[in-house]
């Protein structure tokens, strides 16, 4: 493509110039120019470009090599991108960064492929841990170990006899304890199950070590909270490094607390906040936030208060989503609700009236309908021009759900990597239902604005894995699930960039490479448009830029 053929999009050409901030862009020479690139801008006015100029953390010009290099002044750094593909930074609209960062900091990552490997990892941690302290594991997934069975009390006792051990499942709704842990939690074979939870017994009537849902509470009560304010900050630092190296430049924390908000701000002060955060606040903390006069949008382009989060039903990976049709092979199991319609309404109405965006977790079709009932009622009672109601996950849909979402312009945040990464769990839903799950094709065709969302730790976050999963609908073993929901590479990038910005009311600030927007981008080792879709996940992220600075370089 001839350089001169490309028009340059410079900020100075915008007729809206006039604010002090905008004038400073026009006066300032670029700090940085990236040239010789294949920029895919996601800006319909100039979809492809060769070069960008950056000043003060924002793009000030986008266009051909000739036009942009022409803007260079004495102090401008010029970086030859060597014909690499450059995309806007990816926005993971629903994930749990602060919490997962703390888990990585303090717990044993049990995302391993055999029980023996998990035992070895726990044993190694126990050797470095005083025996009165807990050894905690996370991200264990029974469907991903070669053993074909779950962890047992005996496995854990054999690995770690002296320390209390609790390993939580990746899906978050069950955990596995050793004998020392059961003893500290005062759970024995005669302990009755709590309502909404189980201490599982094996066929001989002995405790198996597996506990689920509300039966986890007695353990949480006796596990001391060891995280200091420094740990909170360090957790953010760690996860920000992990995520930005996969191409993510912005995250939505889907279940934040005031302490998480503080952690993001602390990490920013110490220079460790490598990505931008839109932090949802759980309904349990909403009164404190409203009392402080805070609402959605408070903050700036680095740390911003998001919507209020509620949870309507169970999990897809944990097979507890509330469905209209039972789980395959479990004719009486329709999953579980987590809140009544009245509860969702009560908190939703209060927060919405105080200026909050609403984001409600709903996976199953029945739960989604419940959330739509609540949103429609609130919308009637408090009409607002641009509410951007969100349904977090919004996994299993039907035609009537789509019609109702269209009329309210509801934003869905479906799991981006589940088909690829959690394929072995899809059998519980079945091929027919998969045609209506993670329904990106249907959402886009209906004119809705779905986002990219990992939900890490339950789901994996690399941006290229999201692309592959969404484009191919094929799992790691090559099995296709719901091929009717495939979208194109171009659409998947759109979903992962501008739609993420829209979901946080920031579409004028980020999500595309255009003058005036934040200089967040990712340089890829290969071009996703030329890649075989079945190997998109292997495209290396070579560099990630946030606000004009490299936050990751391979
Ligand atoms: Zn989540």
Poorly predicted runs of 5 or more residues: 1-5, 12-25
In whole angstroms, the N-to-C terminal distance is 28 Å
Number of continuous helical runs: 19
Task: Provide the spatial order of strands within the biggest beta sheet.
Answer: 9-16-17-18-19-20-21
**What is the global morphology?**
globular
- Approximately how much helix is present in the residues? 25-40%
Beta-strand content: 15-25%
Structural class: alpha/beta
Number of strands: 24
Q: What does the largest sheet look like?
A: 7 strands, parallel
Bound molecules: zinc ion
Average predicted confidence as pLDDT: 94
Rg on CA atoms, Å = 24 Å
Explain what the structure shows.
This protein is of the alpha/beta class and 554 residues long. Helices cover 30% and strands 21% of the residues. It contains 19 helices and 24 strands. Helix 4 crosses helix 5 (153-159). The longest helix has 17 residues, at 365-381. Zinc ion (ZN) binds at residues 94, 96, 254-255, 455.
């Amino acid at each position: 493509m001839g350089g001169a053929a490309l028009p340059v999009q410079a900020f100075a050409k915008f007729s809206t110039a006039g604010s002090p901030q905008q004038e400073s862009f026009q006066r300032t020479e670029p700090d940085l120019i990236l040239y010789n690139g294949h920029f895919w801008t996601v800006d319909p006015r100039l979809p492809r470009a060769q070069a960008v100029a950056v000043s003060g953390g924002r793009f000030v010009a986008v266009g051909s090599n000739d036009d942009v290099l022409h803007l260079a002044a004495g102090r401008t750094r010029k970086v030859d991108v060597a014909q690499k593909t450059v995309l806007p930074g990816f926005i993971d609209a629903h994930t749990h960064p602060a919490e997962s960062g703390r888990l990585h900091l303090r717990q044993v990552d049990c995302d391993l492929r055999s029980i023996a490997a998990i035992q070895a990892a726990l044993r190694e941690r126990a050797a470095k841990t005083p025996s009165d302290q807990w050894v905690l594991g996370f991200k264990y997934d029974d469907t991903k170990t070669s053993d074909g069975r779950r962890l047992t009390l005996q496995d854990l006792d054999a690995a770690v006899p002296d320390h209390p051990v609790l390993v939580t499942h990746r899906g978050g709704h069950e955990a596995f304890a050793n004998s020392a842990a059961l003893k500290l939690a005062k759970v024995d074979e005669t302990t009755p199950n709590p309502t909404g939870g189980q201490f599982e017994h094996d066929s001989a009537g002995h405790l198996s070590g597996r506990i689920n849902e509300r039966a986890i509470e007695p353990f949480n009560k006796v596990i001391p909270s060891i995280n200091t304010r420094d740990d909170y900050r360090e957790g953010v630092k760690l996860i920000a490094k992990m995520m930005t190296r996969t191409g993510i430049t912005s995250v939505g924390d889907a279940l934040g607390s005031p302490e998480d908000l503080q952690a993001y701000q602390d990490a920013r002060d110490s220079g460790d906040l490598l990505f931008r955060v839109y932090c949802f606040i759980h309904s349990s903390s909403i009164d404190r936030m409203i009392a402080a006069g805070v609402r959605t949008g408070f903050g700036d382009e680095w740390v911003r208060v998001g919507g209020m989060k509620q949870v309507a039903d169970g999990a897809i990976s944990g097979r507890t989503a509330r469905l209209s049709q039972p789980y395959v092979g479990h004719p009486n199991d329709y999953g579980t609700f987590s809140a009544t319609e009245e509860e969702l309404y009560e908190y939703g109405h209060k927060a919405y009236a105080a200026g909050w965006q609403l984001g409600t977790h709903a996976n199953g079709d029945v739960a989604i309908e419940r959330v739509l009932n609540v949103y429609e009622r609130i919308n009637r009672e408090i009409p607002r021009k641009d509410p951007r109601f969100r349904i977090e996950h919004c996994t299993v849909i039907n035609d009537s759900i789509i019609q109702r979402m269209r009329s309210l312009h509801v934003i869905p945040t479906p799991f981006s990597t589940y088909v690829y990464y959690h394929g072995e769990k899809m059998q519980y839903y079945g091929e027919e239902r998969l045609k209506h799950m993670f329904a990106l094709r249907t959402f886009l065709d209906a004119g809705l604005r779905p986002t990219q969302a990992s939900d890490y730790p339950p789901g994996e976050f690399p941006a290229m894995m999201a692309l592959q999963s969404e484009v191919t609908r094929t799992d790691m073993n090559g099995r296709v699930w719901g091929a009717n929901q495939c979208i194109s590479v171009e659409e998947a990038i759109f979903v992962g960039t501008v739609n993420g910005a829209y979901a946080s009311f920031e579409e004028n600030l980020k999500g595309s490479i255009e003058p005036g927007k934040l200089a967040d981008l990712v340089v890829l080792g290969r071009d996703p448009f030329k890649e075989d879709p079945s190997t998109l996940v292997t495209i290396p992220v070579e560099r990630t830029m946030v606000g004009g600075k490299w936050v990751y370089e391979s």
